[in-house]
Write a structure and sequence with these properties.
Radius of gyration: 18 Å
Shape: globular
Strand order of the largest sheet: 5-4-3-6-8-7
Helix content: 25-40%
CATH topology: Rossmann fold
Bound molecules: iron/sulfur cluster
Order of helices and strands: EEHHEHEHEHHHEEEH
Oligomer: single chain
């Protein structure tokens, strides 16, 4: 395998094929996987995606400790809770993040495709495709890899999530894939990270306001997302950006 001398004297693989990346980094987690990929393997060619939702602070804190200038892509769908926008600003300030980019669909295009703003009610898959998937997909071109904060425990659709995967030709790095809910909570408290303001009102997984409800004690966190519908994912993380039929 081809290798390259790195700053700290270790050798990192130059060959970015999925198999090699998994071999070298697939067994790591958290900061241990982030550090070599951000600083060496994908230096300058990697972004993170964050919803600035209920558990987002953990990944953002790790990134801020490795490279606070890492591009962090945040999609403003135009339907978010104002508390999410305020939380984004608070975390940016607290963690010293300098690379956050807020993306959104062009207003004219959004109005053309969702004239009355009610598409979420009649066709949520298309609404997500327009408001979430398209703005993100349109901004991924400069990056060879994308970091996400997804975890296996979050949903059945994520139960076999790998630390490193490849979707639509893009390498995705999921440093928290194998983390438990307890480990996330412990990390938040050990590092004194603030909660999303809606967590204390029972919102444990937070997306757009019309499609997110609070959950009762004992309910799974994502039960409040698209409650009453079969839909469980926005489609950002699936091939082709569509989550239709992937609810198994
Ligand atoms: S979560 Fe709801 S409002 Fe947000 S983009 Fe998807 S369908 Fe539209």
């Amino acid at each position: 395998m081809t290798t390259d001398q790195t700053n700290n004297g270790k050798r990192a693989p130059r060959d970015e094929c999925l198999q090699n990346l998994r071999l070298h980094f697939g067994h790591l987690n958290g900061r241990a996987v982030l550090e070599p990929l951000l600083r060496d393997v994908f230096k300058g060619r990697v972004a993170a995606w964050s919803s600035f939702g209920a558990e987002s602070a953990v990944l953002l804190h790790m990134i801020s400790n490795v490279d606070p200038g890492t591009p962090i892509l945040f999609v403003d769908t135009g339907k978010l809770f104002p508390e999410t926008l305020a939380y984004r600003d608070r975390l940016i300030a607290n963690l010293g993040l300098t690379g956050v980019r807020t993306l959104s669909q062009e207003k004219a295009e959004q109005e053309r495709l969702d004239r009355d703003g009610m598409l979420w009610q009649t066709d949520p898959d298309t609404c997500c495709a327009i408001r979430k998937v398209a703005p993100l997909a349109g901004n991924l071109t400069p990056f060879a890899a994308l970091i996400t904060g997804r975890k296996r425990y979050q949903a059945a659709t994520r139960s076999s999530l790998q630390v490193i995967e490849q979707v639509d030709g893009c390498i995705k790095i999921n440093p928290l894939a194998g983390w438990s809910e307890d480990r996330v909570r412990t990390y938040m408290s050990e590092h004194d990270l603030p909660d999303h303001p809606l967590v204390w009102s029972g919102y444990l997984s937070i997306g757009c306001a019309p499609c997110t409800m609070s959950v009762k004690s004992g309910e799974h966190a994502r039960t409040g997302r698209w409650r009453g519908r079969e839909k469980t994912e926005c489609g950002i993380h699936f091939a082709g950006g569509r989550s239709v039929g992937q609810n198994a």
